[in-house]
Design a protein that fits this description.
The structure is a homodimer of 398-residue chains.
Chain A (H helix, E strand, L loop, with lengths): L13 H21 L4 H12 L11 H20 L3 H6 L1 H26 L3 H10 L5 H10 L6 H28 L5 H34 L6 H19 L4 H13 L6 H24 L9 H25 L4 H11 L4 H13 L5 H25 L12
Helix pairs in contact in A: 1-2, 1-12, 2-12, 3-7, 3-11, 3-12, 5-6, 5-8, 5-13, 6-8, 6-15, 7-8, 7-16, 8-9, 8-14, 9-10, 9-11, 10-11, 13-14, 13-16, 14-16, 15-16
């Protein structure tokens, strides 16, 4: 007997908003699949369409952003489920190299561009930071849909994106402290040490422990006990990660990785988890699209800066990430570089923090937002081109 | 890079709250399963434990109540998926009889009890109304776990609960109008006509249309197209139902029923849907538990009234529902009556509306809340006893 109140005309209640977001995402996904474009792009554009900038049918709210957050957590968890730890370690050196170059090049280039444009030091540092972190969710979704999640290039991208997120967070912490006029080096070192320790602990202690415990979990009295265990591990490590100052999605990814070997022969658990992910991910993708405010781009100066920042954002990740992966050959290097291009929700979060600290204004916020969305839109089709011919059929029966 | 802010001590952020709710639900469910009690009760008690009344770890918020609402929608959708329309029509006459007696008896008894206690007419009408509607979700979960969802008694309970909800809503609309000093008969008749028309339309036109369309849905370009179609139908009919003034869960149930025949041979879609339901339902159950405020029961008068109201609530549904199902024999009648006892979220919603209209005070709110939770707690174990010997093994491999 929920939601019985007759809504006033023009006011859409929560359930209707969720329905609209979900249905719009899937209609656009179907359209993009027919045009042979990645459905991810369609779902983000669905968000732009129904969001405040165009049709204004749904406004971002605490509920839509919570669902988006839980969605990206489960997305990274399911990516982790496909990633066996020893596979990541095999590409560890390459991934670290890609991550460091993919952070340093965009950060410096972004900073210099903004200084040349006449921005203050602190503004320039923020824009540089927003260019650093990779939104691995988008790339993971594209690679997953092409059945390419277990290639070397994919593993390097995912590994590098994790290191990237840690580095990006580190830089954000420094820049935000600087903006507030103080830098607490002890706290910074502590956070960094916690992040590294957490990752190593899950990889070396957690994963083997889970594999050993798996038979006992299946003998619990609960229904679907392995699925339940996976859910608790995913949500629990996400919370733990965010409490020690690392991104929640890193905890989710590590939870998936810890379960990867133990769940290999559990198709039932994988199907149920796929249901949860399929339900939640559209809220994440549509949520990104809804963040884009088109009206700030009426100012031609903002428009020019936006295009410059976006071009630099694409070029520097391609260059930095690609340089780090040259050992894979030109094509592999381009694949890795392109895989690192999307900034997605990570750039958006940096922009929101900058706006909250009054370090950047509405226009710069719009610039970063556009850059984050544009890099996210540009990457999937180009990534698909770069991986063309390698795609493997994915099971599609319903 | 979500949720990177370090939370202040004592303050749990959203993700941590969701994790706590989910983990507590499943820990209690495991405990109750080991004690051979229904896990539903464990999950509700988990809500009482972590809620404001006991440990105060999580407070109900807009987000938890939205997740609870979406959870009960998917619960009813999955119940509908197991309910083929012709099965319901077969028990239609019995169900209608059960529903009407199960509404009239508790309503009149509740009204008379409150009048005898010294309450005003309008207070008494509200308490009577809160006793009317059945929370089919709880019963459906217990029957589903016992593998008994397709017995005659189960079908009558589910069918009667749907009719019940429509009748309960109708009474609530009248009582709420009376509380505001006006009754709009035209609007009431319109709502009733819409509700009946909606149900008949989905059953007679929607279900056959869906069965016919099924092969075309599977040929869409989208991944998991049948699952996606099911999700859109479920959310869409829930929204449609609440817009025409019927409960959203009725729309969800009808959506499931419309898909029941078309999805019979789609185990993949059923697994994915089960994942979504398993993820969301704990938020519904824990949410009910969190609503219980224990402090109002320090007043002995409130305590006595609470016990009286709860006893009358149990006795009258057992009597009314049972009388309507006497054709099934004594045991069948008792099963149906007991299946109608839980008020769950429906009683809670009536109480909230009453509080919002300032028709009932905090103490009466507590009384109704306790009655709703207590009837929900009492019913599953007794239902399990009444169905003992009929339970069928449910697939439990993970």
């Amino acid at each position: 007997m929920f939601l019985t109140a007759t809504p006033q005309s023009g006011h859409l209640d929560v359930l209707a908003a969720l329905f609209l977001m979900w249905a719009a995402a899937k209609l656009m996904a179907e359209l993009f699949e027919r045009l042979r474009q990645p459905s991810v792009v369609g779902e983000i554009l669905a968000g732009v369409l129904i969001g405040p900038s165009v049709l204004a049918l749904v406004a971002p709210s605490e509920i839509t952003s919570t669902l988006a957050e839980v969605g990206v957590i489960f997305l990274l968890f399911s990516v982790g489920l496909e990633t066996k730890p020893h596979d990541i370690f095999r590409v560890g050196k390459n991934a670290a190299f890609v991550a460091i170059l993919g952070v340093v090049v965009p950060f410096i280039a972004g900073f210099l561009l903004m200084r040349a444009w006449g921005s203050t030091n602190i503004e320039s540092l923020f824009i540089g930071t927003a260019m650093v972190a990779t939104s691995v969710g988008i790339t993971a979704r594209v690679l997953g849909q092409m059945g390419l999640i277990d290639t070397d290039a994919s593993r390097i991208i995912l590994g590098a994106a994790i290191i990237d997120d840690i580095l990006g967070l580190f830089i954000l912490a420094i820049v935000a402290s600087a903006a507030e006029g103080r830098i607490d080096y002890v706290e910074l070192m502590l956070t960094a040490a916690m992040a590294v320790g957490f990752t190593l602990f899950v990889a070396f202690v957690g994963a083997p422990a889970v594999t050993k415990m798996a038979p006992r979990i299946e003998n619990l009295a609960l229904e679907n006990s392995f699925f339940v265990f996976g859910m608790i591990l995913c949500l629990g490590l996400s919370v733990a990660a965010s409490y020690i100052g690392v991104a929640a999605i890193i905890g989710a990814f590590l939870a998936g990785m810890a379960l990867a070997e133990a769940s290999e022969d559990k198709p039932r658990m994988h199907r149920q988890m796929a249901g949860v992910t399929e339900f939640l991910v559209p809220f994440f993708l549509v949520g990104i699209g809804m963040q884009l405010k088109l009206e700030v781009f009426r100012d031609p100066t903002v428009l020019v800066l936006t295009i410059l920042v976006t071009l630099v954002a694409v070029a520097t990740k391609l260059l930095g990430g690609g340089l780090g992966a040259l050992s894979l050959g030109w094509r592999g290097a381009a694949q890795v570089g392109m895989g690192m291009v999307p900034r997605g929700e990570v750039g958006v979060v940096v922009a929101q923090i900058g706006l909250g600290l009054s370090v950047i204004n509405d226009s710069l916020f719009g610039v970063v937002l556009f850059m984050a969305v544009a890099t996210t839109l540009i990457s999937p089709p180009l990534l698909k081109l770069l991986f063309a011919g390698e795609a493997r059929p994915v099971e599609t029966t319903t």
